[in-house]
What we know:
By secondary structure, the chain is an alpha/beta fold. It is built from 13 helices and nine strands. Strands 1, 2, 3, 4, 5, 6, 7, 8 and 9 form a nine-stranded mixed beta sheet that branches. Helix 1 links the parallel strand 1 (7-13) and strand 2 (36-42). The N and C termini lie far apart (54 Å). The mean pLDDT is 93.
Amino acid sequence: MTAAPQITLLVPCYNAARFLPRLMESVRGLTRPFDAILCYDDGSRDDTVAVARSLGLEIITGQPNAGVAHARNQLAAAARTEWIHFHDADDLICSSFLERLAPACDAQHDVVSCDADWVDEIARNLMVPWRYDPAALASTPLPHLLRNSMGLNNSIIRRSAWTAVGGCDESLQMWEDADVHIRLARNGARFHHVSEVLTISLRHADSFSHDHRRSWGCRVDALERYALAPGAGDIAPALVHESEHAASALALLGDRPTAERALALCRRLGARPPTTRNPLLKLLKPFVPAYSLLRLQATRRRRSA
Length: 305
């Protein structure tokens, strides 16, 4: 009989004192428990360390605050099991998470993932349903993950595969978790996906991710790097799609310089943005700057939505 995989829960913490008890309540409700739990305090200014210890958690302390990518890398380096799962302190985990995912943590796979819901913390209404195609992740994960970002809350990762790609890119303040999945796919990691919502991300007003301008800027940084990597021509359609998506979002946010960078990336990849079926916009494309057309298109779409 094959031994059950050993899996460590890794929790990066920054000012997480009010969230840790809630997370641990959901963790203790798991039908299959983690084999170990490890937290990293990234220079918190509240009682995170004291709260973690009161909950019986092992916690590493770091100073000064260096960002969540650094915290995750420190956690992965300290983990003592071959399989690791990162979970944000302010989110929830469903009771059957490990029961459903752990069986696929075997010699045939390097990343085992699930679907996720982003839910408003106060109203508890669904904001974003993150869904993935198991067949695409098994056969062609790289283009699928470029178009469908995956957070680390969603996955269990073989620690040796994590180490092979260098873990999180600490230069990215956001999108670092989506980026590491993309680099895992590019490095040949083998994915297995379970099409069930097994993790819940709670969105709240003071969340770091609400800085949309910075978030999309980090996304453009990552896309520019992917376009320079070997084999980028094979994923050019996905890179163009995501670059134009980023440019559209940045145009609505009024960040013209970063939007222009995304549009320039589209052109370097052989596209002529913006992509449109609107006859009027098609007519205007030779005469009106791409940024102006994209902003008009994005504004029209937002109003119609």
